[in-house]
Amino acid sequence: MKFNWIIADDMDDEFRKFCVELEYKLRPRITKFLMSRFDEECCEDFSCFHFDLDLINMTIRISEKTPQHYVQRMYSDFEQEISQSCCS
Length: 88
Description:
Layout (H helix, E strand, L loop, with lengths): L1 E5 L6 H26 L11 E5 L4 E4 L5 H14 L7
Parallel strand pairs: 1-2
Antiparallel strand pairs: 2-3
């Protein structure tokens, strides 16, 4: 899985630390989410899944780089289970 970070240009050390902690928090949640839906039918390391992590607006969404047939199958559940509680 890959994150596309959308951030402001002026990141200080505290904000960098927040980003690292957020990624450590999100990766296991998203991995479990993907495993429950796509366990053996897609790339083994989930590298075909891309997410836009917008730290300006504090949101996460499925990137358009993710294959559309996967997006269609997971969009509403992802919004409900991951996006709504992403960056709080």
